[in-house]
Amino acid sequence: MKINQLAKGHSPKTVRNYHGFISAVLGTFCPNLKISTTLPQKIKNEPYIPSDEDVRRILERAKGTEYEIPLVLACYGLRRSEICALTMNDLDGDIIRVNKAKVLREDGAWKIKTTKTTASTREIVIPMEIADKIKEKGYIYKGYPNSITRFLKASEDALGIPRFPLHKLRHYFASKMSALNIPEADILKMGGWETDHVMKSVYRHSMLDKEEQAKREAAEKLRSAILS
Length: 228
Prior knowledge:
Number of strands: 5
Oligomer: single chain
Largest sheet: 3 strands, antiparallel
Helix content: 40-55%
Mean pLDDT: 83
Distance between the termini: 62 Å
Number of helices: 11
Strand content: 5-15%
Strand order of the largest sheet: 1-2-5
Structural class: mainly alpha
Radius of gyration: 23 Å
Order of helices and strands: HHHHHEEEEEHHHHHH
């Protein structure tokens, strides 16, 4: 099959995967064969990051439900597995100590284990009003992890918000921290990331927003200088 024919009905990634497989097979039987193929250009996918308005509306809908606190904690950079493993012993004033995770075993049962990485063990400062709500309830979250995800999807559909997974609230957290000029090293610690790979690949959009804002401010200054 010719690459240009394959490209008509498949994504660039699929075409590249096909090409890589075929090249590897041909290379096995014809080691000296040189393949020079012009492959379709990769599509740059920008991840959807919820806006402040998206988050406010979702949290407003969650207010007073079992999902309010988990969603707020997700906005503070906690993973779903970390949220579901929290107990009252992990709360000290307005500080939450993240030191374990609730994960699904191969047999379909949930279990508590250590955090994803050493860097994931950390302390998070939360709003005192949220800490007070937790103390009033006497627990953080007792339901199934998947129930949080289902509530988020239902809220997005009910509010007409583009669907995004719960994990994207970690992206939102990192984006907001970056926009507030929090040092990258501090964002990594607060979010429990071991390296800056995720920061550079997934959360770069906040940097693009800053660049866009800087360009607009520069253009406005230039307009004032030459057109006023």
